[in-house]
Amino acid sequence: MDSFEFNKIAAAILIALLTIKGAELISDHLVQPKMLKENVYKIEGVSTTAATGEAAAEKKGPVPIEPLLASANVQKGADVFKKCTSCHTIDAGGPNRVGPNLHNIVGAQKAHHPGYSYSQAMTSKGGTWSYDDLNIYLYSPRDFVPGTKMSFAGVKNDQERADLIAYLRQQTDNPPPIPDVKAAPDASQTPLSTAPEQSPAKK
Ligand code: HEC
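Output (structure tokens, whole complex):
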């Protein structure tokens, strides 16, 4: 067999291999497994909180943040805060940007910064930035304060939001204490180290 013949055979093998690989790539694109948003089989008693748990599952709102705060990671929260830095500073005495400086925000009055011009919606909201309110606001700003001029979709991941709030807390000089998780009997059953959303209640 001369070398020309050999080249032809080698080329044929190569083309065959490329075709197989190519077909694989294409079929991977054609068939994409879709993950279900919810379990098909609803297991009774899996919801940790009977009433609110079900409501949350239907509405897909934020989970209670206090149990997550206990194990939140401030360092990771600082990373999550990078989503905010285009509009907010957080160092003491930092300037207002598109949004107000957020130093000492935990426990502060809503619309806390005297030097910032808030929306009507935010000034008339009232109350303080409790952990709860921050949780709901940061999950979906426009649902909690309709008409807010903070155009930010929200942090949907519960652990990320907990880490973020832990970071806001660290950047607050005299933060209010984190509400005692043991006060909420349902929450105390949830292992803190794992995401409670996924872990079924121990029965
Ligand atoms: C696109 C710009 C933008 C981004 C991104 C943004 N914010 Fe805001 N934020 C604003 C504006 C504007 C306001 C003032 C809202 C108003 O007056 O309605 C605000 C207000 C707030 C308030 C209320 C402050 C007060 O004094 O009452 C908090 C808390 C807050 N933002 C936290 C965050 C956090 C945490 C993030 C990141 C996860 C974030 N924001 C991302 C623009 C932004």
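The pocket of heme C is lined by residues 83-84, 86-88, 98-100, 102, 105, 110-113, 118-119, 121-122, 129, 138, 148-152, 155, 164 (CB under 6 Å).
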